[in-house]
Design a protein that fits this description.
123 residues; mainly alpha; 75% helix
């Protein structure tokens, strides 16, 4: 059964996960979104947050999104999951990684400067 905002496969997996707590369905669901997890892990990987830790935090965000997603709202899962996963990583940085707590605009600026610096080094 296909629901709004979900592929038929994702819909079936989420039903099995929510109704039966099916471990195999969870593993398959995570495998379908593994590229997203890797992208976030690369984006947030730093000296203060190793890649493996960033990947685990992204996976935690995906799990939270998976459990909170309501297909009846009519949006795609990836649209719902993206800010949830990113929020998990940003919250971790805010709560555990930063030594000095900067205001959010400065943290965002620091992240953009670091991204641009990395991009310039790669050229």
């Amino acid at each position: 059964m296909k629901r709004k905002g979900l592929s038929a496969v994702d819909s079936d997996l989420l039903v099995r996960i929510k109704e039966e707590d099916d471990t195999e369905a969870k593993e398959h669901f995570f495998a379908r979104y593994e590229d997203l997890l890797h992208r976030f892990a690369h984006k947030y990987n730093s000296e203060r947050l190793p890649y493996e830790d960033a990947y685990q935090l992204a996976a935690l965000g995906l799990m939270k999104a998976m459990h909170r997603f309501d297909p009846e709202r009519g949006i795609s899962f990836i649209t719902f999951a993206y800010p949830t996963v990113e929020g998990e990583l940003k919250n971790h940085y805010r709560d555990h990684v930063d030594i000095v707590r900067l205001p959010r605009p400065l943290r965002n600026l620091r992240q953009r400067v670091a991204s641009e610096n990395k991009r310039m080094r790669e050229e």
